[in-house]
Amino acid sequence: MGKGFYISKPLGFVLFGLGAGAVLTIFALSVVYVQEKRKNEVNARDGTRIVTTAAPHRTSAPSNEAWDKYRLPDALLPEYYNVTLWPRLVPDEEGMYIFTGKSGVVFTCLKETNLILIHSNELNFTLTSEMHHAKLTGLGGTSAPAILETWFQTQTQFMVIQLKRKLQVGKSYWLYTEFHGELSDNLGGFYRSEYTENDVKKVVATTQMQPTAARNVFPCFDEPSMKAVFHLTLLHPPGTVALSNDNQEVLQTRFEPTEKMSTYLLAFVVSEFTNIRSPPEIRIWGRREAIESCQGDYALNVTFPILKYLENYYNTTYPLSKSDQIALPDFAAGAMENWGLVTYRELSLFYDPKVSSNEDKEWVVTVITHELAHMWFGNLVTMRWWNDLWLNEGFASYVSYLAADYVEPTWNIKDLMVQQQVQKAFDVDSLVSSHPLSSREDEVITPDQIDQLFDTITYSKGAAILRMLSEFLTESIFANGLHNYLHEYAYSNTVYTDLWKKLQEVTSINEIMNRWILQMGFPVVTIDTRTGSITQQHFLIHPEAVVDNYEWFVPITWLKSGSNMGQHWLLTKTASYEPMKTDTDWLLANLNVTGYYRVNYDPQNWERLLTQLNSDHKVIPVLNRGQIIDDAFNLARADIINITLALRTTKYLYEEKEYIPWESAVRNLEYFFLMFDRTEVYGPLQGIYGKGKLKYCMVCVTSVYRYNQINAVSMACKTGVKGCSELTRMWYRQWMKNPDTNPYGKCFSKYLEYSIDPNLIRKQDITYAIVYIADNVIGQPLVWDFVRANWEHITKDFDDGSFFSGGLINGITKKFSTEFELQQLCCLIFIFWKPFTFDMQAIERAIEQTKANIKWISENKAQVMNWLIEQSD
Ligand SMILES: *[C@@H]1O[C@H](CO)[C@@H](O)[C@H](O)[C@H]1NC(C)=O
Ligand SMILES: *[C@@H]1O[C@H](CO)[C@@H](O)[C@H](O)[C@H]1NC(C)=O
Ligand SMILES: *[C@@H]1O[C@H](CO)[C@@H](O)[C@H](O)[C@H]1NC(C)=O
Ligand SMILES: *[C@@H]1O[C@H](CO)[C@@H](O)[C@H](O)[C@H]1NC(C)=O
Ligand SMILES: *[C@@H]1O[C@H](CO)[C@@H](O)[C@H](O)[C@H]1NC(C)=O
Ligand SMILES: *[C@@H]1O[C@H](CO)[C@@H](O)[C@H](O)[C@H]1NC(C)=O
Ligand SMILES: [Zn+2]
C-alpha cells in the first residue's frame, strides 16, 4: 500500500487517496449504500377584416433598462390565462395562413412597479383600448393604473407596457390583448403541417413551444418557473378535432383548465386526424390512413404498461386524467413532452410491421418512454431555468431504458445504454470544445443560448451521469429520493441541488456530483498492476490539447480474474492499492461501464486481458468486452496506447456471438473506413474485415441478436464482399422501379436539389437526406459544394437550428482529413460568421476534428497497413 488510504476491508470499501474532508463523508455514505445493497436487490367570425395599426417596435442598443434584459423581472406572477385561438386552415386573400387570438392573464403584483413586461414575438396586435395594444383591469375592487405607452422590444421579445402609476403589491390584475400571427411552416410556435390524403391536401395546425415559442402564439410570461393555469378555447372548422393538454367538453372547443404548468409544455392541435384508444383515456392520434393501417397499434399497446411502470417507479400516480399522443407529418425534433398531449414525428410514434425495422420499433418504444418519463420529471416538477435542462433531459433519457426494458424484457435494452448514451457522450466530451453539463443561470439568457443546450452533452452525458449515480447509490435509494423529490416539488420548480437533497447524505452527493457536473470532460483511469498504482487524467482525444487540471471522484468497480472486488473510490489524481498489484491475474475495471470513465492498464495486463478474450471471452461480462474494444480504440486515437493493440482486441471476435462487442468494433472501425476509404489502406482493410477469418463470424452471428444482421450486411458490403454487393444492388434496382416507395429515385445531384424544395422533401428531413448522400465517397464532395452554395437558403428559416445545422456540419465533414479540406472549413467561419449562433460551435468542432484526423492519418497509416498485411499472411 503506497500513499493510499485504506479502510475496513470486510465492508469491501476502499478509499484511494486523501480527498481532504470529503473522505469521511463519502465513507459514511458508502456504508449506507453497501448496507442498502445487501438488503435489496373564441368568438371571432371568419371574414372579419382584422384592423391593425402599425405597432411601435423598438430596437435599441443594450442598456440597463429592464426591457433590454432577456430575463423577466420578478415583480409579477401569473396565476391563470384565458386564451382563445383560431387557426385558419386555408390561406387568406394574400395567400398567408394565419391564426387570430384573444388572450387575458391574471397576475399578482409582488413588487411595486410601473412597468409590465410580458413576452410576445412576431404577433400583430389589434388596438384593445383607444390608444393601446393592451387593456389593464384591476381585480377584487382594485383600480388599475392607466397605460402611458405600449411598445414591442424586438430583441428581447417583450411587449412593454409603461403605466402612469405603480401597481399595488398583493393585488391582482387582468391584462387583455387581441392579436394575430402567421401559421407558418417553420416547425415552431403555432405552425402548420401538411399532407395529402386521397389526393386532397390537408392542413394541420399544431404547436411546438419548447423552449421559447409560446410567446409567438400569445403574450405570456414565457419562462419555465412562471407556472400558471391555462383556460384554452380553440375555434376550428367542422370536420376537424381540437386537442390540447386537458379534456374537452362536447363542443370540442373549450378545454378544462390545465394543471398549474409551464408555458413551454402547452400544446394544441387542430386536424382531421383520427384515433385509436384504450381505457383509461389513452389515445393515439394520426393521419386516418396511418391509423387505419394499424401503425399506431404498437404505441397504444405499450402506453398503458409504460405509464403503470412509471407510476410505480416514481411511486406517484399519473398526474393527469388523460394521455394523448399524436404523430405529425412535419415535426422538427423526435418528439415533445407537452403535458398530456405528446407530439411526435411520425417515425417516433408509428410502427408498421410491414415496413418498419426492429431498430424503428426500438426507437418508437424509447421515444415514448422518454416522453412519458417527462410527465412527472420535467412536467410535474420543472427546472427553474434552462441551465438545468440537463437534469430534465438526462433523466428522461436514463429512465426511458428502464421503462422500455419493462415493456420489452427480451431485448436487453438496458445494455444498449452504454453504446447509445455513455459512449456517445464520451465521443463529444473528449473534445476540448466540450462544455460542462451544468451552466450558470446567467450564462444561458437568450433564446439562441437556450437552443444550444439541446445537445449530446445534455441528453447523453446527463443520462450517463445519472446512471452512474443510481448505480453507486443503488437503484432503490435513487428511486426513493426521486419519489420524495416529486412529492415535495409537485407543480413547482427546482434546481438540481434539490434532487441531491432528497438523495440522503447531501454533502457527499454534492461533493461527488459537482465534479461530474461543473467540469467538462471525464477521466481515463490507469491501473498499473505491476505497482498497484491507480491514476486519473482528463481524457482528451487529441493528445496535444491543453485544458485545466481536472480531478474527479471516481467510483471504481473491478474484477480480478473473474472475481468481483466491489466498489472503491478514487478521490485524488494518483493513489496506490495493494490488491491491484499482481503479476498473474488480469484486472478489469469499471464493471458494466456504470462509471463515466475510460480505463487503461500497463502493457502486461493488456496482454493478460487479450489472452483471456482469446481463450474464454465469456468470463468477461459482455458490456466489458465491448468496453475493452471501445476504450482501446479511443486510447489509441488519443496516442495513449499503440494502435496495433487496439486492432488486436478485435481478433477474438471470430468467437463472439453477442451484439455489443461487435457493435463496438464496427463503430470504431467505421473511423478507419472514413479515414482510409480514399487511400491504399482501404484494400487490406476490406480484406481483413470482409474476406478473412472475421467475415465468417459475421455470418455465424446473424441469428443471435436482432441487430447483428444489420451490422453483418453493412460490414460485408463495406468490405466489398461480392455476394453482398450483388444482393443490395438487386434490392436497389427493385426499389428504384417502384414509384410508390421511391418517387424521387435519382442520382445524387438531382436528389440534393430536391432536398431544398419543401414540396419534395420535408424540411424536417433535410439534414438526413444531405448527410446520407455525404456518407458516400462520390456524394461527399458534391454535398460539400452544394451546402456552401446554398447555405443561406438551407439555414434561413429554421428557428430550431440546434436540431438542424449542428448535425449537418458534422455529417458532411466527418471524412475531412486533408489540409485542403481544413482550409475550406476554416473559410466557412469567415463567410458565415454570426455572433452567438449555433453554427459556430458546430464549425469549431468540425475544425478540431479535421485537424485531429490529419494528424491521426500521418501517424498511424503505416502501422495500420503493416498490421493488416501481417494478419493476411
Ligand atoms: C377566464 O375563463 C374562466 C373559465 O371560462 C372564467 O371563469 C373566468 O371568469 C375568466 N376570467 C376572466 C378574467 O375573464
Ligand atoms: C404583421 O405585421 C407585419 C408588418 O406590418 C407584416 O409584415 C406581417 O405580415 C403581419 N403578420 C401577419 C400575420 O399579418
Ligand atoms: C398489440 O396488442 C395486440 C393484443 O395483444 C396484439 O394482437 C398485436 O399484435 C399488438 N400489436 C403490435 C404492433 O404490437
Ligand atoms: C410509496 O409512497 C408511500 C407514501 O407516499 C410510502 O408509504 C411507500 O412506502 C412508498 N413505496 C415505496 C416502494 O417506496
Ligand atoms: C452487468 O450487466 C448484466 C447485464 O448485461 C447483468 O446481468 C449483471 O448483473 C451486471 N453486473 C453487475 C456487477 O452489475
Ligand atoms: C506499436 O507496435 C508495433 C508492433 O508491435 C511496433 O512496430 C510499433 O513500433 C509500435 N509503435 C509505437 C509508437 O510504439
Ligand atoms: Zn426530453
Write up what this structure looks like.
It is found in: Membrane. Belongs to the peptidase M1 family. InterPro entries: Aminopeptidase_N-like_N, Aminopeptidase_N-like_N_sf, ERAP1-like_C_dom, M1_APN-typ, Peptidase_M1, Peptidase_M1_aminopeptidases, Peptidase_M1_dom, Peptidase_M4/M1_CTD_sf. This is Aminopeptidase. One of its GO terms (cellular component) is cytoplasm. The protein is α/β, with parallel strands linked by helices and 873 residues long. Among the domains are: 241 residues, Sandwich (Immunoglobulin-like); 131 residues, Neutral Protease Domain 2 (Neutral Protease, domain 2, Orthogonal Bundle), CATH 1.10.390.10; 154 residues, Immunoglobulin-like (Sandwich). Helices cover 39% and strands 19% of the residues. The strands form eight sheets. Strands 3, 4, 6, 7, 10 and 13 form a six-stranded mixed beta sheet that branches. The protein has a five-stranded mixed beta sheet with strand order 16-17-18-20-19. Helix 5 crosses helix 6. The chain is globular. It starts with 13 loop residues before the first strand and ends with a helix. The relative contact order is 0.07. The structure holds 2-acetamido-2-deoxy-beta-D-glucopyranose (NAG) (6 copies) and zinc ion. The site of one 2-acetamido-2-deoxy-beta-D-glucopyranose (NAG) has 6 residues, from helix 14. One 2-acetamido-2-deoxy-beta-D-glucopyranose (NAG) binds next to strand 10.
